[in-house]
Predict the 3D structure of the following.
Amino acid sequence: MNEKPTKRKGSRAKLRDYFLLNTGKVLNSGTLRYIAGTSEWGRRVRELRNEEGMNIVTHNDRSDLKPGEYLLVDINPIPSFERAISKETRAMVLDRDGFTCQMCGAAAGEAHPYDHGRKTRLHIGHIIDKSMGGTDEPANLRAICSVCNEGASNLTLDRPQAIKLLAQIRRAPTQDQLEILKWIIQKFPNQSINFLSSITLVGGLEQ
Ligand SMILES: [Zn+2]
């Protein structure tokens, strides 16, 4: 790589050209910084992905990539609907869905439950596909992790039922049960307090 970055071309354009020249090849952050000629190179890469829809993936998307590695998968752009969805709608859907994949239950930013090597990154997906007449309304959108988005996780097509969940939790180790307790208290703090005070009251009366 002897090509010296020129001053005339903007850093985003330099990165765009370099990714296109190296489609399907893993690039590292040092190279990209050099090509961009700016410490803002990471922001420029995000712009290529989020604004131009370039299918650039990182270790958050693919477990075969290491931190600091970037890959333009192919020249097909990310579906424009996902880029077209406003920041507000996106934030609203993610918040409504508890920043959790609605297919497998993986939480944003945490290690993926079915692929520990990668951090869960959430996308916005359609419940009823556009090709089947689905709309871009929030009611037809849901948070989906990149694993489920690729169809790699076909483990949980149905939402788990309470009866099955309880059966699973009952046979889990205490440590895991306590993890679940912690998560539930964080998710439902007020209900937890009410519930605890109600059982404390009943206990008190019985003594
Ligand atoms: Zn998922």
Notes: The chain has nine helices and seven strands.
